[in-house]
C-alpha cells in the first residue's frame, strides 16, 4: 500500500472484511457449539466482503491489480480454512488447494505492488517497507510450502500423528521418534467434539508409554473435582485431531473401536467416562 496506495474508497470495505475474517479465525476453537458457529459466520462474511471489495472496485475502475490480487488471495485463504474447519477431513484436499491458491495470489500481489510502484519512499520508509514486506512474504511462502506438503500428505505439519495401526497397537510419529500404545493399554475411546477424540489410558502409566513424549492429559472420574490438589490422576488421556489420525473422525473412531471389540483385543475394561480436571 505504501508503494502503490489503494483508492481511498477501498479502505472501508477492506478493513471491514479483514476485521470479520480475523475475528472469525481467532474465535474458532474447533469445538463446535455457538462459538464455532459464530466464528464460521464471521469467516464467511469476511470472504464475501473481500470478494465484494474486488468486484466493486473493478466495476468502478478503482481496483488496481495488486489490490485485486491481495484481496482475492486473502479471501481464498480464509475460504480454505473455513472449508477445512466446517466440513473437516473429507474436504481437506480441496481446502488445502484453495489455501495454496490464495497464497500464490497474495505473493503475486506483493510482486505487482513492487514492480508497479508509483511512490518514492524515504530511506526510513524503505526500511519499514522492507521489514513489513519480507515478513509478509515469509509468512505467505511458508504457508504455501506447508499447503503443498499437505496436498501430498494430509498429516503434514502435525507434531504427533498416527502412522500405523496393527496387531501390536497404535504407532505414532513424534518429534523424538516413534511411540507405540499397545491395544492392551487402551481402555476406551471417546469422541470429544466433531474433530477430536481421546484415547483413555490407565494410571499409573505403563513404563513404555510414560517414557514417550506423547502429550498426555491427566483425567479425573468427576468433572470439576476440587479440593485435592495432590490427587493422582484416575486415568490418562491422549487427545487426537482427525488430521493426526489421518482419516475422518467417525471412520477413525469406528476402526479403533473395532479393534477394542474384536476377539483379539487383550484388554476390555470398564467404559466410564472420564473428564479432564477443571
Can you describe this structure in just a few lines?
This protein is an alpha+beta fold. The chain has 8 helices and 7 strands.
Task: Provide structural commentary.
With 278 residues, this protein is an alpha+beta fold. It folds into two domains: 8-152, no CATH class; 161-261, Pleckstrin-homology domain (PH domain)/Phosphotyrosine-binding domain (PTB) (PH-domain like). 53% of the residues lie in helices and 15% in strands. It is built from eight helices and seven strands. It has helices at 8-27, 33-60, 65-87, 92-115, 123-152, 207-210, 242-245, 249-261, and strands spanning 161-165, 169-174, 177-182, 188-193, 196-202, 216-219, 235-241. It has a four-stranded antiparallel beta sheet with strand order 4-5-7-6. Strands 1-2-3 form a three-stranded antiparallel beta sheet. A hairpin with a 3-residue loop joins strand 1 (161-165) and strand 2. Helix 2 (33-60) packs antiparallel against helix 3 and helix 3 (65-87) runs antiparallel to helix 4. The model is unreliable at 265-278 (pLDDT under 50).
Label this structure with key terms.
278 residues, alpha+beta, PH-domain like, four-stranded antiparallel beta sheet, 8 helices, 53% helix, elongated, disordered C terminus
